[in-house]
Amino acid sequence: MEWETVIGLEIHAQLATKSKIFSGASTAYGAAPNTQACAVDLGLPGVLPVLNKDVVRMAVKFGLAIGAKVAPRSVFARKNYFYPDLPKGYQISQYELPVVEQGMLEIELEDGSTKNVGVTRAHLEEDAGKSMHEDFEGMSGIDLNRAGTPLLEIVSEPDLRSAKEAVAYMKKLHSLVRYLEICDGNMQEGSFRCDANVSVRPKGQKEFGTRAELKNLNSFRFVERAINIEVERQIDLLESGGTVVQETRLYDSVKNETRSMRTKEEANDYRYFPDPDLLPLDIEPAFIDQVRATLPELPDEKRRRFIDEYKLSVYDAGVLTSSREMADFFEAVVRESGGQAKMSANWVMGDFSGALNKDGLEIGDSPVTPTMLGQLLQRIADNTISGKIAKEVFEAMWNGEGMPDDIIEKRGLKQVTDTGAIEAMIDEVLAANPGQVEQYKGGKDKLLGFFVGQVMKLSKGKANPAQLNELLKKKLAE
Amino acid sequence: MSLSSADVQSIAHLARLSIEDQDIPEYARNLSDILNFVEQLGKVDTKGVDPMAHPLDMAQRLRVDEVSESDQRELFQSIAPATEAGLYLVPRVIE
User: Fold this and answer.
1) How far is A376 from A388, CA to CA, in rounded Å?
2) CATH code at A434?
3) pLDDT at residue A423 in the model
4) Which part of the chain is the Asn/Gln amidotransferase domain (chain A) (predicted)?
């Protein structure tokens, strides 16, 4: 039988505020345990939550960016459950009236086509603390620094049909929240987390199959692998006459399997009700307009502009607009290089990105600035150096040797464009290789490459390649 | 509306309340009486009335995003039953 996969994602994006959603404690990552957990976060008696205005602003910004409805009135609710890293015995979340509803995100598929994925809702909630189960005999250690950190939970429609689509959607969302500067997107630190609802159904069937919820998918790679492995498990189960149970499953990246988190098979019963400590949240049209005015150029618009303005391929434009930092860097290089768009694209995506990856650096930490790379590209464009020598200069820049012009000067890398000098080197090479000259004249055209290589070697890579080719052919034709 | 013994047990479990078996019939009766009392509201015509999220007819006030709390871990942990290395210790929980 042919099966169809149905996936919906729930993504928790940690909002990039200084203080928590309902208290004035810091949200900075990595502090000593419980030094950023105040009386409100600890759920001490008599405290009251007060909503952070920036959290609302960021949720509205997100809603506008995905063309969603921003609710004029939304309500906070208590989600009741017991766990030691949730001191109040409930999580403040939103249930019936979330702040954002019915948005849309366009994703690009591998074949170059696009697909619209519905965003059912996005709601505000507080994060829980962290539990540590090792190191304490018979006890668990609780750190409540993370308790009360603002989260935007973004819930997609079950519109995704493969692990690849799920990853494309997740990457798109990841890029968007960073463009909007509402989330730092740091997956190692848990700022951007994903749960996936996965089910399968016979192709053509209308009703959805029973779904499993996958947790602990903290990288793009794991999302893809976990979904694929879960789909395989469900199909095997169904084809051997079994049924899928609705449950939460944990992905184990070491064993590459999903396994049931058996919590006594009891259905979750969170008994949501409106939180009496918080009044309804009213969002005025004037506030929405204010936020709208702060929207940056979004990834899709930027990509289209890059294709138009810089004549880039769809692929190149996609890579260069995948993050705002990358796009800004590219545009600065184009400006500094005097408009060498194609060359800028190649260098930013090639040597520059490669060097960043190799050293594990972010664009902001790069030792090479747009001014430096721009000047280097100008020297290639005006024939001062060849593309090959430019790689050497780039490496020197990366290692902190200064501006390209200084490096070229200091290392004597200026391209040889003097016809006489190049001819002299050609003569020397031809004289040293009479046998090859004979063979070439006898019809072995391929040897041209050999001569070019020899002259290049003699010039230490500095001979102008175009001139060299032309002069060499002329000489050999004599 | 009347609650069964099983309902009472399930509610008690969700609220992590320990109750004696012998008390269950009385809890069931009392809770059912409360529900029946409130159910009288069902007779009121509420067509066109928005569900109320809060008894006060006001909107939530917002605070500026500023860190205003300092570290008071020592003070808070002085009343905790057990702590170690800055963590609160609780009976082990593992799912």
Assistant:
1) 12
2) 1.10.10.410
3) 85
4) 328-476
